[in-house]
Each structure stands twice: as structure tokens, then as C-alpha cells.
């Protein structure tokens, strides 16, 4: 019975997580990415990544030209800000939300597409911060088995973006589930798997054109069973949890030295004679030329970790057990960085007070459990309990099946929480899907709620998205219609051309 | 503590024997001294799902007595000795049946010592899942609390993987829980099994046909076989014996096939050898909906498996169940899971979201699995049926609905599970191990 086909098992076991868009913006908070770093002088302000950031400016022509303005009205509008308008409207213009509110909205200007959404529900696009679509695409093939670089337990220099196959047929199905943005992460076979990338789910020819504008860098790390299982089979370290911890600490120790070397070199470049006592200067001395100082060698992995310690890369850490998360937080304290979110975190409820105090988010499933030892204590009330404690909670998928029904996952976790006596609003469940994952990926100033000025990533549902029967009918990204259930088009994926029939979509219930 | 966790005495199970429940071949019937018979319970004012194409009854009564359903209807008189459960605004269904699970044979997937689903051989038709069934698995109360009262425990790999068991999710011993120790035989002809066995489809079908033909030969040469007077056969004696009811067309052969052409081959095999088959997986079955309906072959499907996840299911689509159901195929919905078999309701809900009729989806997790495997008395709320009944707070397929009461063979089961105990321990922090603060 195939409880877990091997393919899916490999995902479960090696959930990778990292979605990082190297979009070239190292600032947290979603400032639009500069095409080049702000170089005030000849000395790069970011000596690590200047060339790279320039190289990563978009090369594909913009395909998502903003369409006409769209006014969706007569709907129940769930904003994920605590406000709900019924009837309400959403006006999208030039890729952004121009207005959101109660009633029928403004009289539509000429050329505006008006959507009568009577009986429908409108929400922000769902954001899944933990996906391996594209790096573990379907169909399962050796040729596209690109999610885990299992040759070294620390591969911080990798980027999931460089494994991403934009023709993964799962991407379009996720959009049909109301998902507009994903964090694509490397697998969890390694302790530090590499950087992830944040992508907008639009059909493009390569990941570079899908990168979410201005998203910060993220890195995927992993605790617990997966790394030690992988490397035990190879008969090399780490094979134990203590081995895991040592390897992570050593990696950060190396990164500390690396950062110091670059800091020293940078200081010298700015002030070449700073290290010479004034008395040593003699007339006729040749002026010290900074160009004579050899820059330290760049190391992609250490660079990632140095930027983590500098707070420029968000840490997305795969951990299940409470004790593993506490140990991870100790490492973060030792090296002075913050954990943005624990992913999976099935035992987060046991340490929710600590997570709330530390400001660490929890991205998890609603009710998965039992597939391995460290997943034995998962309970369906996890999301509700951590929310009650003040932790930012997120429903993630880690699966191309689960990502299609994330709204149901939130609804189930809401029901479980209410049954346990946790006071929760529908809006809390919506925030698990939109606002909170936006924060986890550092793009909460741009998406995650329906508020004027934000990107127009919008879903129109057939009914309340917390119902099992709800279907996403219309999905907009940056104000452009990317999915229309009533009018299916050709498959997004080139792979499916000539394979997938183009029949009518399922009839309405 | 739930009965299952704490260990209720055997008395409650005497009735099971009295029910005429079919016990597994070779399994002893529970001892039959008896006193405390299951109490009489009346569920009143409920919306009640009844068999067939009938709409649910409104404001109806279900009476459970002697471990069975004694009465179902709108004008039922509540017996004076009955405990009454007011189910106004609630929904009553037959207990859900998950037609393909590994409940009770795996605690933790990745811990081999706790996982009896991984066989090293690919040809084990004699293997019986009932021998591995652990009635004390913590998965059982969790599954039951999801409204599932019976499951098929099935092999999930192997060209011929062995025999499934049909169990009720209660009881402290396998003898008590098991309804059928040998329910069906399992063949897997999907990509995974091709890769783990012969490496090619042709090789796999050769091995499979040869095994069945040898079993047929053995059926008429048993004496000679025992006297060492027959040609060599591809299987050992225990495996040949296990296949006898299959080649006689008495026991279903469940064939896991995904690609439409593999399903066609399976249908040919069934007619060539006069086998009774059930299809499962069947991602591309919608391409053969008319043919499968014509042959009256039941199909077991997970409606959430809609991805072209392997080369043998590139034509998978989300409305497979709806298309088959509309073509008249007997569709059975399943989780194919262990820990998440409790979510069978959600599979059915998604089948509805993806186009299946709501009441047909409920039948697909109650009557349809019972009919597919010939399980009389199961899956139907009608007089004389086994007293496996669930009271839901609302629509059983909706996310906000909770399971409020579960009856197995007429006895109410606790909804306490290892997970509710964890919740209780950590409901407030700092936690205390004994619940005191």
C-alpha cells in the first residue's frame, strides 16, 4: 500500500529547505534589489558578493507585464490583517493593490476588468516557505534528482536555485491550489545544505526570472536524524547528534576567521596606513599602495556563514525534536545569529515559551507524524499552541501533493486548536498561510496581506478557503491572472506537451 | 485511558464471536463466557447515512444492541433500557473502512524493528499481514478517533506480496481484532516494483503469470507434489497454498497498477485465468473507465495522488475518482497509509472537491470497500449490521467537523490517544509529568 512511495519518502526524510533568492539584496526587509551593490568608494561595501550580485541581475525580459486593472467585488475579502470585508472589494492596478475595503469599491475606470465574485472568498496568495519543487521535480527521475548534494555534510556554498527545473509540472498544480510564492530549499541530508531561493510561481524559462524581487537570502540547515543517517551509510562523520553539533560549530568557527580576514583587509583598503604608528613614518617612504594587499581567497560556503552571522541571510532550520531545537538555539547564541524559523518542528509546542521569547517562527505541517523517530511526538494542536504562545506559525508543505491543499491543512489545525480550547480566529489560520510565511521569507512588507501598496498576489476561492470543498478559481500574481479554473490553457510545463490531455477541468461539485 | 490502551477484559469480545463474524482461518475464536453484554445505545435526532443511493434520513434514530445495529429509521422506538445520545444537528454514518493501510504493522516507518512492511523478497504470496498485526499499536486509537473503525492491513510491495487482513480497530489481542485473517492477495506491477524486481515489465509479468500458473498446476497435483512426483515449480509450498483461493477465483487479487497499459494487461490476466481482481493506485484508470465499469472491477484510489510523479502515471489527474464514479465504476477511496489513515474523511472530501458526488464519496469509504471484498455486515447502517458506527459533529467530510463518538461492535471506544495525552501534558507550560501543577 504504498504508504510512502520511495520518492516521497526521500522528501520526507531529507526535507530540504532553503529558499534563497540570491536576488542580490542582502538587506532584510525587502528593499528592492539593487542591480549592483551600493559602492560608495572603490572599496566594495560588500566585499564578499559584489561581482556575484552584479551577475545576478535579471537577464530575461520581463514577461509579467502588468495587465489591465482588475476590480474583484461582491466577495468576502479576508485580508489576513484581522479585517474582513463582506461584501468587499479588491482593486489591482499596475501589479499592486490599489484599494481594498468594504462595499462595491470605486467606480471602475475604463478598461478595468470587473470580476463579480458573489459568494466567493478573496485572500492573499498562499506562501509556502518549504518546497522542493523544481529541485526534486516530478516525475521522479535520476536525471532530475537535484535536491541534496550528499558529498559533504556542510555545503553552505550551494544554491537551490542552481538545481531548479522550471518545467516541473508540480508548479502549475500548486498555483491551482492558491499558492503564489514558494521558498525552494535544498534537502536536509546535509547539516548546512545551502541557500534557498524565493520564487514567484509564474511560468518562466529559468529560476532567475522567477525570483521574488527583493527577497532576502535564506539558508537551509538541518538537525537530527537525516544528516547522521546519510553520513552513517557513508561511514563518515557525522553519525550522531553530537557529531552534527560539532560539525556545525566548526563550520561557524571557520567562518568567523574568514569574516575577520575580510574585515581586516577591508579596513586596510580604506585606511592603508592605519596600522603604522605615526613615528614610523619617514619622509621619502613610498606611500603604501592598497592594491599591493592581496585580498583573502573567496570561499562560497564560508561566505554564506559569514553573512548569516552578519544577519544578512535568514536561517531556515529543519529540526523536529524540542531538544534538537534547544541545541540549535545554543549554537545561534554562540555565534551571534538569529534563527528565522524552525521548519517541521513537530515538538515546537513543548518549547513554545522559548521560541516566543527568542522570536523564532515555526513552519510545520498540520498533522504529520510517525514517519521517523523524531516525528513520533507530533500532535495536530502544534500550530494552535505555538500561536497561542505568541509564536509566528506557518503551515508548510514540503510536498508537491500537500502544497495543493495547504488551505485544508490550516483549516484542520484551526479545528484541532479550537477543540483543545485555544481561542483562534479564522484570520489566524489565514495568517499561517500568508502573512507569517511572508515574514519567514523576509518579504512581509511586500506580500502576505491584502493592503494597499502591496503586490497584487490574490486568490479568488469558490467558497471559504477553510472548507475542504473550496477551490481556487482565479489566481493573480503581481496583478496578472496566472490561473483561471474555468478557462484552462495549455500546460505550463514543456514536459507535459504532447502528454497531458487538454480536457475540461473537473466539473463543479 | 481508552480501552485499547488500558486493556479491557475479554468479555466485550465474546459478542464478536456471537456475531458470526468470520474469523481468520487458523485463528481461534475468542472464549465465550459472557456477562456484560454491550449496552443498548440509541442515537437520536441524527442525520443518518443509509445504504444505497438513498438520501440521508433526517431526525432519525439508530439503535445498537448486542454489538449490532438493531434498528435504523425515522420512526424507531427507543428501547427503555437504552442509553440515549442526543445527536441533534449531528451526522451518523457506518464506521469508515480504509481499504488499504499498514495500520498495526508499523509504528515508525524508518525504524526497521518497528516496521513489518519491508520484505526483502519480491515474491511472498504466503506472507500474512495478520501475523504482524499488533493490536496495541498507538496508531490504532488515533486512526479510530478519525472515524475509521475497520481497515484492510495489506502488503505494500512485492510482485506477489502476500495476504491482507481485515480488522476492526479495537480489541486487546489479534484474535479479538481480526475479522478475516486472509482477505486478499496483492500483486504490484507499478514502476517501483518493476525496478525492485525484474527490471522490466516483461520480466515482471512473466514471473507473475508463472507463479499463478504453477499454483493452478499445484491445485490438481497436490498428492504428487507431496510425493516429489512433479516438475519443479517456481514457488514454495506455502506460497502455492496461499494462491489456491486466488486461482480458483474465490479470493480477490488486488493489483496495483498505475499506467493504463498496465491496467489493460491486468484486465487480460483476469479474464485469461478467471481471476477475481481489484485494481488499486490506478492513476490512469480514467482512460479505461468504460471498460473497467463493464467488467465490474472495483478500483481503490487516493484522490490526492494527482501528480505525474513517475513515468507510469504521466496521465494522472485530480478528477480520476469522479470520472470513474460517473462511468459506473465501484470507486473505493483509501489513504494507503498507516499514521494518516485517520484522514480518510479528508480523502473523501477532496474527491468531492474534485467532482465526485458527496454521498457517493461517503459510500466510497463505507459500502464500497465492504462490497469490493465481500465483507457482509460492514459499511452499511441497516438492521443486523456490525455495530461499527460514528457520530460526527457535522458533515463527516468537512475540515471543521469533529468525531464525537465511535462505536466498534456496539461498544463505545474512548477517543483518548497517545497524542491527546501529549496535548494534556503540554497544554500549559511549564509542564508537569503527572499533570499536577
Radius of gyration based on Cα positions of chain B? 22 Å
Overall pLDDT of chain A? 87
Q: Which CATH architecture of the domain at 160-375 in chain B?
A: Alpha-Beta Barrel
In CATH terms, the superfamily of the domain at 6-32 and 41-60 and 125-252 and 297-448 in chain A is: Metal-dependent hydrolases
- The fraction of residues assigned to DSSP E strands of chain B is 15-25%
Biggest chain contact: A-B, 65 and 63 residues
User: So what's the oligomer here?
Assistant: heterodimer
Helix percent of chain B reads: 25-40%
Query: What class would the helix/strand composition of chain A place it in?
Result: alpha/beta
Over the alpha carbons, how many angstroms does the gyration radius of chain A reach? 24 Å
CATH homologous superfamily of the domain at 160-375 in chain B, by name? Metal-dependent hydrolases
CATH class of the domain at 160-375 in chain B: Alpha Beta
Mean pLDDT of chain B: 92
Estimated structural class of chain B = alpha/beta
Secondary structure tally: strands of chain A: 17
**Portion of residues in helices of chain A?**
10-25%
Tell me briefly what this model is.
Chain A is 25% helix and 19% strand. Chain A has 509 residues and is α/β, with parallel strands linked by helices. By secondary structure, chain B is α/β, with parallel strands linked by helices.
Amino acid at each position: 500500500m504504498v504508504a510512502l512511495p520511495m520518492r516521497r519518502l526521500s522528501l520526507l526524510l531529507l526535507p530540504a529547505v532553503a529558499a534563497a533568492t540570491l536576488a542580490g539584496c542582502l538587506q532584510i526587509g525587502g528593499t528592492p534589489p539593487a542591480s549592483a551593490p551600493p559602492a560608495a568608494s572603490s572599496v566594495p561595501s560588500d566585499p564578499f558578493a559584489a561581482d556575484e550580485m552584479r551577475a545576478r541581475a535579471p537577464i530575461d525580459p520581463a514577461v509579467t507585464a502588468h495587465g489591465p486593472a482588475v476590480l474583484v467585488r461582491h466577495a468576502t475579502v479576508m485580508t489576513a490583517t484581522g479585517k474582513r470585508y463582506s461584501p468587499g472589494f479588491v482593486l489591482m492596478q499596475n501589479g499592486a493593490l490599489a484599494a481594498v475595503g468594504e462595499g462595491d469599491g470605486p467606480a471602475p475606470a475604463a478598461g478595468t476588468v470587473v470580476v463579480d465574485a458573489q459568494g466567493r472568498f478573496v485572500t492573499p496568495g498562499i506562501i509556502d516557505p518549504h518546497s522542493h519543487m523544481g529541485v526534486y521535480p516530478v516525475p521522479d527521475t535520476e536525471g532530475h534528482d537535484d535536491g541534496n548534494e550528499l558529498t559533504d555534510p556542510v555545503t553552505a556554498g550551494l544554491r537551490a536555485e542552481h538545481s531548479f527545473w522550471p518545467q516541473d509540472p508540480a508548479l502549475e498544480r500548486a498555483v491551482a491550489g492558491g499558492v503564489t510564492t514558494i521558498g525552494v530549499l535544498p534537502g536536509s541530508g546535509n547539516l548546512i545544505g545551502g541557500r534557498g531561493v524565493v520564487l514567484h510561481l509564474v511560468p518562466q524559462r529559468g529560476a532567475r526570472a522567477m525570483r521574488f524581487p527583493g527577497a532576502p537570502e535564506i539558508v537551509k540547515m538541518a538537525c537530527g536524524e537525516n544528516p547522521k543517517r546519510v553520513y552513517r551509510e557513508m561511514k563518515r562523520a557525522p553519525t550522531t547528534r553530537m557529531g552534527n553539533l560539532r560539525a556545525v560549530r566548526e563550520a561557524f568557527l571557520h567562518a568567523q576567521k574568514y569574516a575577520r580576514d575580510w574585515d581586516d583587509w577591508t579596513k586596510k583598503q580604506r585606511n592603508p596606513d592605519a596600522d603604522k604608528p605615526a613615528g614610523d613614518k619617514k619622509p621619502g617612504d613610498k606611500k603604501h599602495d592598497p592594491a599591493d594587499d592581496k585580498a583573502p581567497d573567496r570561499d562560497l560556503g564560508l561566505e554564506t556563514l559569514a553573512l548569516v552571522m552578519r544577519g544578512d541571510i535568514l536561517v531556515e532550520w529543519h529540526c523536529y525534536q524540542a531538544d534538537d531545537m534547544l541545541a540549535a538555539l545554543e549554537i545561534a547564541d554562540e555565534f551571534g545569529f538569529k534563527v528565522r524559523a524552525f521548519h517541521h518542528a513537530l515538538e515546537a509546542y513543548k518549547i513554545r515559551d522559548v521560541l516566543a521569547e527568542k522570536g523564532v517562527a515555526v513552519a510545520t505541517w498540520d498533522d504529520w507524524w510517525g514517519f521517523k523517530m523524531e516525528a513520533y511526538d507530533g500532535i495536530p494542536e502544534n500550530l494552535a499552541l505555538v500561536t497561542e504562545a505568541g509564536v509566528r506559525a506557518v503551515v508548510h508543505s514540503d510536498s508537491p501533493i500537500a502544497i495543493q491543499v495547504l488551505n485544508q491543512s490550516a483549516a484542520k489545525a484551526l479545528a484541532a486548536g479550537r477543540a483543545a480550547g485555544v481561542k483562534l480566529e479564522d484570520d489566524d489560520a489565514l495568517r499561517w498561510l500568508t502573512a507569517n510565511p511572508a515574514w519567514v521569507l523576509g518579504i512581509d512588507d511586500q506580500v502576505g496581506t491584502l493592503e494597499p501598496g502591496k503586490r497584487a498576489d490574490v486568490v479568488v476561492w469558490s467558497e471559504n478557503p477553510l472548507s475542504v470543498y473550496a477551490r481556487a478559481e482565479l489566481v493573480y500574481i503581481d496583478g496578472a491572472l496566472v490561473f483561471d479554473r474555468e478557462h484552462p490553457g495549455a500546460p505550463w510545463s514543456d514536459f507535459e506537451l504532447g502528454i497531458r490531455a487538454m480536457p475540461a477541468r473537473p466539473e463543479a461539485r | 485511558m481508552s480501552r485499547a490502551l488500558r486493556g479491557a477484559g475479554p468479555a466485550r469480545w465474546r459478542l464478536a464471536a456471537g456475531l458470526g463474524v468470520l474469523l481468520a482461518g487458523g485463528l481461534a475464536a475468542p472464549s465465550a463466557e459472557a456477562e456484560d453484554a454491550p449496552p443498548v445505545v440509541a442515537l437520536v435526532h441524527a442525520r443518518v447515512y443509509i445504504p444505497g443511493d438513498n438520501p440521508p434520513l433526517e431526525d432519525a434514530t439508530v439503535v445498537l444492541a448486542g454489538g449490532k445495529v438493531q434498528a435504523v429509521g425515522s420512526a424507531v422506538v427507543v428501547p427503555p433500557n437504552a442509553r440515549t445520545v442526543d445527536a441533534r444537528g449531528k451526522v451518523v454514518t457506518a464506521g469508515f473502512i480504509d481499504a488499504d493501510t499498514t495500520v498495526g504493522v508499523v509504528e515508525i516507518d524508518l525504524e526497521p524493528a518497528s516496521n513489518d512492511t519491508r520484505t526483502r523478497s519480491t515474491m511472498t504470496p504466503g506472507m500474512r499481514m495478520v501475523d504482524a498485526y499488533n493490536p496495541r499499536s498507538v496508531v490504532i486509537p488515533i486512526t479510530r478517533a478519525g472515524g475509521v473503525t475497520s481497515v484492510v492491513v495489506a502488503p505494500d510491495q512485492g510482485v506477489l506480496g502476500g495476504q491482507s487482513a481485515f480488522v476492526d480497530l479495537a480489541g486487546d489481542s489479534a484474535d479479538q481484532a481480526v475479522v478475516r485473517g486472509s482477505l486478499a492477495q496483492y500483486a504490484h506491477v507499478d514502476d517501483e516494483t518493476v525496478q525492485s524486481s525484474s527490471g522490466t515489465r516483461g520480466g515482471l509479468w512473466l514471473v507473475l503469470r508463472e507463479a499463478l500458473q504453477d499454483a493452478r498446476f499445484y491445485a490438481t497435483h497436490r498428492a504428487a507434489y507431496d510425493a516429489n512426483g512433479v516438475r519443479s515449480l517456481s514457488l514454495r509450498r506455502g506460497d502455492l497454498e496461499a494462491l489456491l483461493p486466488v486461482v480458483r477465483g474465490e479470493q480477490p487479487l488486488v493489483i496495483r497498477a498505475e499506467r493504463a497499459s498496465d491496467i489493460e494487461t491486468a484486465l487480460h490476466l483476469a479474464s485469461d485465468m478467471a481471476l477475481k481482481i481489484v485494481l488499486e493506485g490506478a492513476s490512469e484508470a480514467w482512460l479505461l473507465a468504460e471498460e473497467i465499469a463493464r467488467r465490474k472491477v472495483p478500483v481503490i484510489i487516493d484522490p490526492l495522488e494527482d501528480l505525474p510523479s513517475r513515468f507510469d502515471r504521466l496521465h494522472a489527474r485530480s478528477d480520476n475518482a469522479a470520472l470513474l464514479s460517473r462511468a459506473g465504476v465501484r470507486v473505493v477511496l483509501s489513504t494507503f497509509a498507516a499514521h494518516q489513515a485517520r484522514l480518510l474523511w479528508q480523502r473523501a472530501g477532496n474527491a468531492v472537491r474534485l467532482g465526485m458526488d458527496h454521498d457517493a464519496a461517503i459510500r466510497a469509504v463505507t459500502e464500497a470497500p465492504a462490497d469490493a471484498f465481500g465483507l457482509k455486515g460492514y459499511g452499511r447502517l441497516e438492521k443486523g449490521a456490525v455495530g461499527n458506527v460514528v457520530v460526527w459533529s457535522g458533515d463527516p467530510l468537512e475540515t471543521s467537523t469533529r468525531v464525537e463518538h465511535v462505536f466498534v461492535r456496539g461498544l463505545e471506544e474512548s477517543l483518548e490517544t497517545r497524542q491527546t495525552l501529549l496535548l494534556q501534558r503540554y497544554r500549559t507550560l511549564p509542564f508537569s509529568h503527572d499533570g499536577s501543577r
